[in-house]
Amino acid sequence: MSTSDSATKRQQSVRPQRLRIWVILISTLLIGIVVFAVIRGQGSVEGTEFSPTHFTARHFSFYEIPLLGIQITPIHRSESTPETATYLRQKGLIPKLPGSDKKWDLVSISRGLSTSTFADANFLMQQLTIRSNSTSYWKQWSEDHPKNAAVLWPVIHRLAGRELYLLMPRLFEIAQTELSADELAVAIDTFLISNLVDLISEMRAANRNLLANQLLAEALIDYPNAQPFGDLVKTMKQPQRDSDTAQSDAANSLAPDATTNANAESP
Q1: Which of 93, 121, 246, 261 would you call most buried, defined as having the most Cβ atoms within 10 angstroms of its Cβ?
Q2: pLDDT of 242 over the 90 cut
Q3: Left (φ > 0), alpha (ψ -120 to 50) or beta: where does 264 sit?
């Protein structure tokens, strides 16, 4: 066999190998572009959190693998506290607590191109961000009604700490009526006592006795002499394998090592 024949055969064998390499490289590049585009469009996650203790808010964002929900970038956070909330802290209309914000409640979250999903804390955030004539509505209201503000905001702060955001819209409606500070306090107490009794009763009916008893204990701190709560105490049920404890046991059985992740942060 001549030298030229062997060289020709080597060239012929090398060409398919190079072609395969180029096909692999181009395919990998195309797949990478598609994956990047999908993650960029559908893997973005962003939302807002609210601290019920310090009345601060923050925006968060990160990327995850769509469908799998696996986070692939660090969480980026930036402060987004409404002007009204800052005003309330500065004027002492809510208690000043030491330390940093430890508890955060979800306000809203969106994934990809989907619309935002709102959590209960949004009932308060909506009020804190309302503007009228380019000014913060509730900041201006508090300046115009300082005595009523001193009645309303400590109650709102207390309810936020207990995640009772669902009760707030009606309280803001009551606050806007023409009432004196004393009349506002009575109207708020009347509303809260009635609705807390209903809420506790509904929890008991749903066999959520653990939460019902916790809510009743908190209500007794606020209204120790309220007869409706005294009546509920007489019929208080112990949380024996109710739905709350059953869910907790189920979660523990699925995640036996959850305590090792106690310091992990999630949005």
Answers
A1: 121
A2: no
A3: beta
